[in-house]
Write a structure and sequence with these properties.
By secondary structure, this protein is α/β, with parallel strands linked by helices. It has helices at about 5-10, 35, 85-100, 100-110, 130-145, 155-165, 200-205, 215-220, 235-240, 245-260; strands at about 40-45, 50-55, 60, 120-125, 150-155, 170-175, 195, 210, 225-230. The model is unreliable at about 1-15 (pLDDT under 50). It binds iron/sulfur cluster.
């Protein structure tokens, strides 16, 4: 059983049943403390990181393409684990899962406010485009609000290459973040990619480009993009002197070797 499955079962799927998350959120877009410090005007929408259990008991994987990123995910530590924060994120997820059409209408209505004209919306502080229908709903919302700029980090490489890349909306930008199941599909020469580094100095030493001064640089600045690991002790320790992309490659190699040894192939 993989560490990720253990992690889902051992932490997220054992979350306290978020029974208070029964109310639909009245506001869908927020500005968290990190984005409030950003020099740009950025709002964000979020889901629970990795997976969550709805009050009905239904389990939803919100980051189906996550892999080693889950080991150092900032959204699985600290304030993101406070009950009120988790409940809010689960309430968002519940709205999407139980009434996608109603959620889409509410998001469109909220985005009609003047405050979102010429503003940026980060789709997902945590979570990802976890189904085709959810991504399709976002694409309709983005098309309906051309005066708002939308952006996202995503590990849903296959889904984006199939559903977004053939006809990308002009007001949507994205960066593929390494540390997921589909890293091997990415080519930094042609795909915009982001990786997590141990320090800011390591980003520049590698010739990558930090987004530390504004989150928007992840999609509007030079590529490839680097960000330094969140200073969570577990994340710092697990990453060590590697990048997250390198950590993923090591994990992929270990899995391939394990599969080969199970088939009785020489190592
Ligand atoms: S995809 Fe993002 S939010 Fe989800 S587990 Fe990985 S780092 Fe966390």
């Amino acid at each position: 059983m993989s560490r990720q499955v253990n992690r889902i079962q051992g932490t997220l799927f054992d979350l306290p049943k978020v029974g208070l998350a029964t109310e639909r959120p009245s506001k869908l877009l927020m500005r968290n403390s990190r984005l409030r410090r950003d020099p740009e005007r950025i709002w964000n929408w979020t889901l629970p990181a990795l997976a969550a259990v709805l009050p009905s008991g239904r389990k939803i994987v919100t980051c189906p393409s996550a892999s080693t990123c889950a080991d150092i995910c900032y959204a699985l530590f600290g304030t993101y684990r406070f009950r009120n924060v988790l409940e809010r994120h689960v309430a968002n997820l519940r709205f999407v899962v139980e009434d996608l059409e109603g959620w889409e209408q509410s998001m469109r209505a909220e985005l009609a406010s003047r405050r979102f004209r010429h503003a940026a919306v980060r789709i997902h502080d945590a979570g990802d485009f976890f189904t085709d229908s959810y991504l399709a709903a976002w694409l309709r919302i983005i098309a309906a609000r051309p005066e708002t700029f939308f952006y996202a980090y995503t590990k849903e490489v296959s889904r984006f290459k199939r559903m977004v890349e053939p006809q990308p909306p002009p007001n949507l930008a994205w960066v593929y973040s390494l540390g997921g199941k589909h890293d091997a599909l990415l080519d930094p020469a042609t795909d915009r990619v982001a990786d997590v580094f141990p320090t800011e100095a390591a980003i520049s030493q590698a010739g990558w480009h930090s987004q530390a001064t504004s989150d928007l640089l992840a999609v509007q600045g030079p590529s490839p993009v680097g960000m330094s690991v969140n200073r969570i002790p577990t994340a710092v320790r697990l990453l060590g002197n590697r990048t997250l992309g390198q950590m993923q490659q090591e994990s992929d190699r270990r899995k391939r070797a394990l599969r080969a040894s199970r088939r009785g192939e020489p190592r």
